[in-house]
Amino acid sequence: MNKFAIFDLDDTLVDSAGAVDRWFIELAEQRNLGADGLQFLRAEQQRPVTPRESFQSIVDRFGFTESPDELRSIFLERVPRLSRAFDGVVHSLGELRARGWRTALLTNGTALDQQPKMRDGMADLFDVVCFADDEATRKPDPEVFRLVAGRAGAGLDGAWMVGDSLEYDIAGGAAVGMSTIWVSGGRTPRDGEPVPTRVVTSVAEAFPLLLAEG
Question: In this structure, are residues 169 and 58 in contact, taking their beta carbons and an 8 Å threshold?
Fold first, then answer.
């Protein structure tokens, strides 16, 4: 048994989507946008447009003095600090390590963007932390998975990848021989999407699966 697990960060270990909504609430309160304004912000998040188009829409709607790029900078600075680990994550990571598991964090994004999300000692619970945008390649490229395993002194065959993205986490992990746990959040895979080894609704359900395997 290969007791090595790689974890994604955003919406796997940390509630990043919730942090975005907390920023919307904060922004609406600070600028007196009201309930309708908050509803607009939440709807804008769901629109299939680029981030710049979305921030342009927000600036235009409310007449903010910031440019879209300036508002996006505020967003990028504030949202990581509003992120929170899901309940039990820090304890469960510690339990894995106490049971002899090696653990790694592999997240797309830079250290500057991602480190503020890793509070309450979370960063100390990994043998390796890899911010892929600071490396030569990012998920789902197999090379970044091999990079992380090499730094951890672990093999990938029979190891586990845990993440919320079928494209980046599940497909990437499977491509290098890992077993995979998809944190679905209640979603259902569409035809043609990668098929995970296991499916859980929340990451809290993933830890008992790993412990049972180990």
Answer: no
**H or E segment to which residue 37 belongs:** helix 34-46
Domain boundary (26, 49, 82) is at 82
- Please indicate, yes or no, whether residues 156 and 166 belong to a single structural domain of this protein: yes
How many angstroms separate the CA atoms of 46 and 40, rounded? 10
Q: Based on the structure, what is the number of domains in the chain?
A: 2
| Per-residue model confidence (pLDDT) at position 191 | 87
Q: Do 72 and 90 belong to one domain?
A: no
| Domain around 166 | 4-15+84-213
Residue 139, judged by CB atoms within 10 A of its CB (0-12, 13-18, 19+), counts as buried
Instruction: Say if residues 104 and 128 touch (Cβ distance below 8 Å).
Output: yes
Q: Which helix (H) or strand (E) holds 138?
A: none
User: For residue 6, how many C-alpha atoms fall within 13 Å in the half-sphere facing its CB?
Assistant: 37
Are the C-beta atoms of 122 and 13 separated by less than 8 Å? yes
**Per-residue pLDDT reduced to its tens digit, 10-38:** 999 999 999 999 999 999 999 999 999 99
The answer on 93 and 75 residing in a single domain is: no
What's phi and psi for 122, nearest 5 deg? -60, -45
